[in-house]
Amino acid sequence: MRFSTIPLFLLAFALLVNSALQKSPTVDEQGHLFRGVAYLKTGATHFLWGHPLLASTLNALPLLTITDLRLPIDDPAWAEGRWAVAGELFLWQLNNHPQRLIFLGRLTTIWLTLLLAALVFHWGCQLKGVTAGLLAFILLLFDPNVLAHGQLITSDLPLTFFLTVTMYGYWRWVGRRGWLSDSNLPYPSRLIPLLLAGIALGAAAATKFNAALLLPTLAILGIGLAVRRRSAQPLLALLLMGIIAWLTVWGVYRFAWYPLPGGAFWDDLTWQFTYLSRPHGAYLLGQSDPWGWWYYFPIAFLVKTPLPILLLLLWACGRWARLKGWRKGDDYFLLLPPIIYFLVSLSSPLNIGYRHLIPMLPFLVLFIAVVLWPGSQPGLVNQSHWRPPRPRATYLLPVAASLMIATAIFTWPDYIPYFNGLISWSPHRWRILSDSNIDWGQDLPALARWQQQTGEPLLLSYFGVAHPSAYGIQFTPLPTWEPGPEQINPAYQSFNPVDPAPGVYAISVTNLHGLVLGNEANTFAWFRDRKPVARIGGSIYIYQVDPIGPPVEVAFAGVQPADLAPGLHQQFGSNDIQVRWFAAETSLVWPDGDSWLVTAGPTPDPALQPFWPTTPIRQAGGQQLFRPAPQPDFPWISRPVVMGDTITFLGYRPIAAASGEVALISAWQIVQATTRPLKIFVHALDAHGEIAGQWDGLDVLPASWQPGDRFIQLHRFLIPLTATGEQVDIPLSLVIGVYDGHTLERLGEWQHE
Known about the structure:
23 helices, alpha+beta, 4 domains
């Protein structure tokens, strides 16, 4: 029977690895991996995150096989301990193949998950026989929640593994009746379970601070055993375990002494207390609250725990409560950890994910298997009478196990957004929970495949830390949470949440909920009651927005579509707003075709006034709506100059300026749109051909250009004094051109003698 676990191990391993290869890094993985690599390679412990370092370090171990791995040691973020910025540099800029680094880091968690399942099987065999062990093994390993987080670079599954090992080790020692018993084992061998339990307890504490929840469990068990046996040995055993555990934590931190023994362990603990004292925000059933709800985890447990486990747990609890003449010795090792853990969770301010309940699962599935499976094997502690359950367990339990395996297979590879059969049928299930319960940034590869198949350009609001462009996704950024990568400059955000422009929108479910968007939580409220045309991996929803009216060309200065006064927006008669961006005080743009100008803020420079329409069509809320005059011809030079097949120089006009100042207006026409950060330069040359003064910049955003647009740009700059304090002669010539602000490549230039 034990060999029957081999194909199940292989199946689970295949599901974990294959899913891990198909998922982009989730929100926490980048930070965990970076901290682990930084600690292994440099001993850095100043990247405080409220988590001890062991799990991150274990995940980082496979990356040591990469010889040219680079860390952002020279960046200011390193010295300042800003792990988010440093982790971004490490994963996406300094090293090649970020997907490979993430997969290597995930391997550690996958192996720990399989080891956890093996331990549960072994413990179940000792408690009730091989079949009971196999049942517990299947219920745990094929739980979609375990498969979801059993492949990620986080601390949840490592913590679960170490907590389970701790309880198993203490249970083994209790079964041997202590080191002063009449056991036939050699004296040192009797201490092995305590050594195992102590190391595991220390490893749990060095993985996550909520490992401390195991302490009251061990204390209750130890006191109960001490009273029952009329011996202090159970309490002395716990003391020994505590000493070993602290030595383990200290060893993880390389036996650092400053500021206390354990070094940065205490710094992270202080950071965690500070973090927990602040409101974090929680989402549940379509509502948000800064401090969460006591019933958050009960609801999360009810809707995400697989139905077979829920039903078996109810059955097991009912049977356990009805047992007569059974002292239930072993059961308290299985019941106390999840009961205490769950009760404490009711007061937790961190209502962010079912994953925080995963440490309960090994004990619950063992409890189910021990109570429900027929048999009379008493285990190591319980020597009392066992009343076998009714025969229906012999066929209902295999059915439940088969359902778990089938659920794992059919849910693959989208384990994070799993909900059980109570609500999985509902199209509104995405409204129940947020964040790591459904959308943690994991589905960029699936979105990239969808775009390749459909060829649709995307407007993307992605919740996560991965780079969409690294997966080949072509997109226009929409508003997202503050740490998100590849965002557009907020001053040039063209999305209008009240009346979205036509297009294909890809929106992460967590952003749909809006909690992580802070004061802009309702940015995507318009989409919430609309049916998506596709659901990518269960975490990214695709919406098609159709045009209402013809395209309207609008140039914005000092205001965005999202802030446009309703009265002005209604003038357009369409949601298809083609946006241009410009600075009204120093530039003016004429979009090609019938167009509008919307301004708010600084007034145009007097030199630009002759080009502006005289009277606004409408004003509201400090905003002005203009109808620009037709595009002027600008006959300022004899032959226009095309620069880089992108923009055409139409000429310039000098304007009156103060002494020692050069002032002119240049005119341009767009040949084609570009995403390059182009800039205009104007060089004033003296009689010797040297630059006497210059201007660099561009106040009409290149990313908003459209072919046929025209614009003018005002240039004002001073001619500096010479070393002797004399003014340089009036420039004899001007050089005007365009260059790439990133690469400094010149697209072209024009010179007037």
